[in-house]
Amino acid sequence: MPSTRVPRRRRYLTCEPRYFDVLYAINPWMHPERRIDTGLACEQWEALVRAYRAHGHVVECVEPVPGLPDLVFSANAAFVMSGRVLGSRFHAPQRRPESEVYEMWFKSAGYDVHQPVAVCEGEGDLVPVGGFVLAGYGFRTERAAHEEVQEFFGMPTVGLRLIDPSFYHLDTALFALDDDNIAYYPGAFSPGSRAVLRRLFPEAVLGSREDALAFGLNSVSDGRHVFISPRARGLIAELTRRGYVPVPLDLSELHKSGGGIKCCTQEIRP
Ligand code: ARG
């Protein structure tokens, strides 16, 4: 049966991994002693950008900065809804200088940027879907930031507690499939948060631990096409069954820093 799901054209902000490296360890995926192939990371990122453009999406790029190896993870730098930008305050001191780089990009693109007071890692922990902003906490973004998000956007936040250090950002365990539904890996959440997700999204697509470890829950969907890690085989099969069209893209070199497709993609919502 052909898929009837309808895509919506998106605007994505990314950053070439020209200076990508693993120089410190702030999550369990990062091992600074391992060799990083920056050239390969760039090729994988270019394939992602090509795929977005081939599917009709607009891709913008922040200029990479030497000495900021995690700048490629644009999802963490802000949260944009209704053309309003909430900047980021990073948990790790090594990443704090990234906020200013993205703030400058947004300002030059004509946006006002509101800076949060509490630790807030942008779309890494904030996912708008179903009339809520799903908001992760436990490792990075603080609960106080959820309140700031609710106040700034006038959208109700739903706090979800992350309990597995391998899935330290909400976007490593959950993504929005469209305006109303999500895919997630239940094992990343506390029992209460799991119950909240079941209640809000009874039709959600569930991923396994294998899918999550393959960064399959760190995907980007335009409502029809799901840009996803090719190693998340179970999830790819289930998404296909539900009428989505998976577009496999391998960001294996970026995985060495604990990030995948979604981490490298900031959505600028008009
Ligand atoms: N090395 C980065 C960090 O630990 C990876 C960030 C991945 N981004 C994401 N949205 N999950 O902060």
Task: Give the DSSP E fraction (strand runs of 2 or more residues).
Answer: 15-25%
Oligomer: single chain
Question: In percent, how helical is the residue content?
Answer: 10-25%
Give a count of the beta strands, DSSP E runs of length 2 or more.
15
What is the mean pLDDT? 97
* Tally of individual helices: 7
Low-confidence segments, given as residue ranges, are none
CATH superfamily: L-arginine/glycine Amidinotransferase, Chain A
Instruction: Please compute the radius of gyration using only Cα atoms.
Output: 17 Å
Give the end-to-end Cα distance, rounded to a whole number of Å: 33 Å
**How does the overall form come out from the CA principal axes?**
globular
Please give the CATH class. Answer: Alpha Beta
Number of domains: 1
Spatial strand order of the main sheet: 2-1-15
Structural class: alpha/beta
Task: Describe the secondary-structure layout.
Blueprint lengths: L10 E5 L22 H17 L3 E5 L15 E4 L2 E4 L10 H11 L4 E2 L11 E4 L2 E6 L5 H11 L3 E5 L12 E3 L5 E3 L6 H10 L4 E2 L2 H5 L6 E2 L3 E4 L4 H9 L3 E4 L3 H4 L10 E2 L3
Parallel strand pairs: 1-2, 4-5, 7-8, 10-11, 13-14
Antiparallel strand pairs: 1-15, 3-4, 6-7, 9-10, 12-13
The structure holds arginine (ARG).
